[in-house]
Design a protein that fits this description.
Layout lengths: L1 E4 L5 H12 L9 H10 L4 E10 L5 E12 L2 E11 L8 H15 L4 E5 L2 H4 L5 E2 L5 E2 L9 E5 L12 E4 L3 H4 L1
Parallel strand pairs: 4-5, 7-9
Antiparallel strand pairs: 1-2, 2-3, 3-4, 3-9, 5-8, 6-8
Helix pairs in contact: 1-2
Length: 175
């Protein structure tokens, strides 16, 4: 498996993988995660260096992850998601490879932290902890322990700017 940056030629394959990955949980013909990706691609928070695909053995796109610009007050941070793996490739380490690569790329770019909304039991293995441990509140207080943060090398625990309420890229609030 190869994890690489998404190219313009991958957009339709990423849409298809994301749609397939979330179809079973979707209440709509097009899962909201597909619409969210489309909206994120058109906003200033989109970071091409942090939109990554997993290629299967034949070069086909089998997974995708994206981090977009978020903020804690005025301090930059990253919001991760959606992350998707085609159902036929789930359970083979593709999601883990995408996650490790996204975190490594974010760290290499000097980002202080990555936030996400997800299952604590799953994301703990990647170093995510409840955001409250870092003095960071979720955009929606009801998210509680499901809103998590992974600090990176540039994170300074003494920096008061990195405490407060996290804000995702604008499409997250309207899609």
């Amino acid at each position: 498996m190869l994890i690489r940056r998404e190219s313009p030629a991958d957009v339709s394959a990423v849409r298809a993988v994301t749609g397939a990955a979330f179809a079973a949980r979707s209440q709509t013909p097009v899962p909201v995660e597909v619409t969210l990706l489309d909206e994120l691609r058109g906003c200033e928070a989109w970071l091409p260096a942090l939109s990554l695909v997993a290629e299967g053995p034949g070069g086909e796109v089998v997974g995708h992850v994206v981090c977009t610009r978020g903020h804690i007050g005025t301090a930059p941070a990253l919001g991760l998601g959606p992350i998707s793996v085609h159902p036929g490739h789930q359970g083979r380490g593709t999601g883990s490879a995408l996650m490790h690569t996204a975190l490594g790329a974010a760290d290499a770019l000097g980002e202080p932290l990555v936030a996400l909304l997800g299952e604590p039991a799953y994301y703990r293995r990647f170093g995510f902890r409840t955001s409250a441990e870092y003095g960071i509140a979720p955009p929606d207080p009801a998210w509680g322990e499901y809103f998590q943060v992974r600090t990176l090398a540039a994170y300074d625990p003494e920096d008061p700017a990195l405490r407060g309420t996290f804000a995702y890229a604008e499409p997250f609030s309207r899609v």
